[in-house]
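Team,

Forwarding the record for the chain on the shared tracking sheet. I've put the sequence and predicted structure together so nobody has to dig through attachments.
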Amino acid sequence: MKNRTKWLCMLFLMGVFSVFAQQKNVTGTVTDFDGVPLPGVNVIVESTTNGTQTDFDGNYAITVSYGQILVFTYLGLRTERRTVGDQNVINIQLQEDAEALDEVVVVGFGTQIKRKVTDNIAKIEADQIGGIATPSFQAALIGKAPGVQITQTNGKLDGGLNITIRGLSSVTASQQPLFVIDGIEMNNNDISSTTAPTNPLLALNPNDIASIDILKDASAAAIFGAKGTNGVILITTKRGNQGKSVVSLDVSTSYGEPSNTRDWLNGEDYIELLEEAEANTNFLADRGLTVDGLLQGFAGDQDFRNVDTDWQDFAFQDSYVQNVNLSVSGGNEKTRSFISGAYTDNEGIIRGNTLERYTVRANIDHKVNDWLKLGLNSSYASTVIDRISSDASFLTPMQAIAQIPTAPAFLSNGDINSNTLYANFLLQDRFSFRTSKQRRLLGKVFAEIKLMEKLRFQTELGYDYLNQTVDRNTGRLAPFQSTNGQTFASDNGAEIISTNNYMTYDTTFGEFSNFAFVLGSNFTRFKNRTTSVTGDGFPTDDFKSVASAAQISAGDGTFTNWAQLSYFARATYDYKGKYLFKASIRRDGSSRFGAENQFGYFPAASAGWIISEEDFLSESSILSYLKLRGSWGINGNTPIANFGSLGLFGGASYNGESALEFTQGANPDLKWEETEQINFGLDFGFLNNRISGEVDYYKKKTKDLLFNTRVPFEALLPSHRVLQNIGNLENEGFEFSLNTINIQTQNLTWKTNLNFAINKNKITNLPNGEDLITVRNILREGEPINSFFLLEYAGVDPANGDALYVLNTENPDGSMNKNTTNDPTAAERIVAGNPNPDVIAGLSSNFNYKSLDFSFTFQGQWGGQRYNNAGRFQEAGLGNGLDNQDQYVFDRRWQNPGDITDVPQARLFENNGHSESTRYMQDADFIRLRNITIGYSLPQQVLDRIGMSRVRIYTSGLNLLTFTDYRGYDPESSDDSAISNTNSGTTFYSAPQARVYTLGLNLAF
């Protein structure tokens, strides 16, 4: 018995030793089809969580057991498997994979291999937007995709962004694209309680984004039907991968400053100009006043001739930003997860403007069994913003530049000077505040059921809640405050609940045919509730809540909602992988429309031909890829008003009694705007795709434009308008994208992307053919949308310094009278410019040399104009007030007969050129070095010794250089008090964007 036990123990120990003996350390090098080492190749032991990645030189090392299988995967190359035998070294050369040469793109309710896509879709990966120090992810997309214009309103941290895809397709309806995150529609509406908009997408953490797909043509966006006219931006967030857990930490610190400052008159030059302007009119002398007496009145207890205040320095400040991002991802065969948290503390370049944001995210995927998968996507963000007034407010810091430079900001005793030309914003900064807090909860739960081998059903429930509270307090010493303090508080909550239910079927039949089908439905319900209250009179400024107010002076509240029910279908078919076809249709029903037109149909079709797969090209050593594609489709757009088709009554007060009033006329025929678009494209690749790109031509025609049209006074409507479908416009354009691998060696890789787009926009039909004029913009048949409508400035009369205007009146023979006049009331306005550029472009380049990486992006635009509405005060030669003047006026002003210049004689309080005209319209062409990044990553050998998988230190710059002839702060900035649904192209004391320098560290282990 003892001997048997002894032998059994010996056999057990021999088995254990045998198992350990079978484990070995396998090393090797992975190269591509040209023999170039591949960094970042995933090397996984099949059916386990044991894995690693190749280092920068393509080398790997992994511990495995005899008989196990190593799996080598790399995007764009064929997956390889090797069974481990007696060998200790396994070298792999990965080959091209025809199905993986292009990345997977998200197409809405599914994905496609880009090689087989017949639409126009631009894809942006996470590494293209990482490390760019902007408050919002949209700003990181600038210059990355052809035909996508992204304009930051101004330099405020909370400022809105305008995103225009292939030109403006509406006048009064939304002009912004639809945003969809992980399959769930997002609320992209501004919910600010002031005229200055906030960016509703500030809650998204750019580090959580895996990729962004931009659907530009009608066929791509048609699956979203009535919301796809302005394009669709699909955001996919990061998910966990099977394998060991990875912890990533990104930390960065940034310093910012204004990307541009302007030259304003100092005290000495201002006095000289004021004395000259007074001598030319005797305005003060005729009233018994003097220049000295006038200026001393603003100087307080100081001598104005000894004061030289640079008010611009008070408006701007140095910016400091702290960013921390932490994420954990990983999983096994059953469950994968990605969990992240981030913190941002951003002090803006404008005094009093700060932003603090916390975000958390959890994405979980769980495979219950072979036929059921469950998942959760969820995120929460809290963003606190110290806001400043809109550009049109006297209290915004940017309007401080209008102050007289001989007026001190502070008195001798340190008190703020309250007797300035305009209200001293420093009083507002010290004795008041406006704090907005945004809270956003985004979530989706989903289940995927495998009904059959090739048939799947997916159901999704999405929730998007965006809430903004505003607390504004104005102390008794703040400007324009007539009571003992005032407090305003508001609460605005917007909620979207949506469900998607759809089936997908993928099959191959015969030898060459592949077919896929999607059929589903979508239901979306939007609710919005707002309340606000204002209280006046407080015991002291220490009391700031409404509860302490002596009087509740105002209050308001609204509740609104809308719902939409949709059905959609899409089918794709390819034959031999080179003849490609797609068709889709969507039926939308919305509560926003009249009873006669609640439902609309949005069809689309597209086709493609991969010519390079044909026998006559397949063996070409030069041409590696050539695809011809074309698409057609119809998209829609909805009005902003939720009840635009209904006749409405509202509550009112009449002689102190409650009453009803008629507020809106009914239009039961109200329906969607419809945009029909055709697109023809060519995708190409040369020299094994070392050179590749896309060329596209498109034409968009929008009909049934939504307009608030006038009705007779007898209709007794307060606004005398009814929402109707009248008017057409069109966009026609060309897009080009070129990708090149300039150098690819063992140690050096250099890649470049160049993209540009040309777009021409014009209105083709308006109600009764009549012009619609809004201040200085016009809608006119045959002209671009929102064209500038201004007097034509003709320069200065050299004999007397008068400002001149072109008459542009009609001669008896029908010709245009191009004579000039010094009387602006005698001249007629003309269509003078276009706020929307004709050409936009971007250039990006990436270098990798061993452990060093370097990248940069340029952006540019040409053909558009900006109207400087503040120029009527800043460049008026003191004819329109005492505002400080641009140095340009001082240097170029007319002074003596015979002077040739475009700046008229300075005449105090006399209109000599400050009428609204093309004098204040400038070309907004520019080229900007948008961002530049330099990084260094520790070599793999060092990482192995310290137990890390990545250590990278980097520095980056944002908005470092701008090349432009535009004299204002920024050729992109716009008046945020005028931004609504139209791009007016007007700037008014609008701040430039920030120039930001960043130092960051990326860690992973």
